[in-house]
Amino acid sequence: MLSSLPISPPHNPEPSGESRTRYRTIWISDVHLGTKGCNAEMLIDFLDRTDSDTMYLVGDIIDGWRLKKRFYWPASHNDIVWRIMKRAKRGTRIVYIPGNHDEMFRQFTGLNFGGVEIRRAAFHDTADGRRLMVLHGDEFDAVMLSHRWLAFVGDWAYHAVMKLNYAVNVARKLAGKPYWSLSKAAKHKVKNAANFISQYEEVVAKAAGERGVDGVVCGHIHTAEMRVFDHHGRTVEYWNDGDWVEGCNALVEHHDGRMEILNWPDVIRERERRSEIARGAADIRAKEAA
Ligand SMILES: [Mn+2]
């Protein structure tokens, strides 16, 4: 499947690396390449401005379920795969843990493709000595949902919302308004969804606690979050790196082991605000000089 994807040099070239923010580790998941819902431009912006020693791709990077139904592969999606392969070539350790939407890659567990290691799960040791279990997280659906078909119904409904989200944001962009997540807004209003998310976080943290690790990093439910749970008097951290369909989040580890959830639309907004201020100051200086 990886080799059957038409990966060619990027349509949108990669800028030089000097201005990148360097992290010890980056985790991203739920990119859903091959669907219209993927915020490819936003992810390219993130990839072009960051770098790390290690990068974990925590599943649902390519949406095989959707691609099988309808082949959708714009240049920007190729550019993302190209950038990730390029990172591996530059020396970033890349660990790819396939999720349920890219489960076709799970058969390659243990193999290495162009510097990308494929794993079923991984353990990550932070700079300050915490051991984290890294997995996609669909493993816990069996606990949460009794029938697999429910997951597919969920998938269909989810993509319907995503299409609407896409249409709304195309309209917002034309109107000069910033990106807004429809489903994120909806999710927080629907009590059942909030309950589901909270329960899911508990189940995953409990599993990590039972494995004796200090925490867990997962994706799958498209909700970036950090929570601390108590497991028989021990602290267990729950980290979810979010997604690049709605929230556009990444989880990063700084060089001292401190971890942070990045909200990329906020980062872009802040950058634009600063450059506006800088432009304003330059205008004033130019007027004063005249
Ligand atoms: Mn998933």
Write the layout of secondary structure elements.
Elements: E1 21-28, H1 40-49, E2 50-57, H2 64-69, H3 75-90, E3 93-96, E4 112-113, E5 116-118, E6 122-125, E7 131-134, H4 141-144, H5 148-174, H6 182-189, H7 191-211, E8 215-218, E9 225-231, E10 234-240, E11 249-253, E12 259-263, H8 264-289
Parallel strand pairs: 1-2, 2-3, 3-5, 7-8, 8-10
Antiparallel strand pairs: 1-11, 4-5, 6-7, 9-10, 11-12
Helix pairs in contact: 1-3
Manganese (II) ion (MN) is lined by residues 59-60, 99-101, 136, 138, 220.
Note down, in words, how this protein is organized.
This protein is of the alpha/beta class. It has one domain: Purple Acid Phosphatase, chain A, domain 2. Helix content is 41%, strand content 21%. The chain has helices at residues 40-49, 64-69, 75-90, 141-144, 148-174, 182-189, 191-211, 264-289, and strands spanning 21-28, 50-57, 93-96, 112-113, 116-118, 122-125, 131-134, 215-218, 225-231, 234-240, 249-253, 259-263. The strands form 2 sheets. A 7-stranded mixed beta sheet has the order 4-5-3-2-1-11-12. It is globular, with a radius of gyration of 20 Å. The model is unreliable at 146-153 (pLDDT under 50). The protein binds manganese (II) ion. Manganese (II) ion binds at residues 59-60, 99-101, 136, 138, 220.
Main attributes?
single chain; 290 residues; alpha/beta; Purple Acid Phosphatase, chain A, domain 2; seven-stranded mixed β-sheet; five-stranded mixed β-sheet; 8 helices; 41% helix; binds manganese (II) ion
Quick synopsis:
The protein has 290 residues and is α/β, with parallel strands linked by helices.
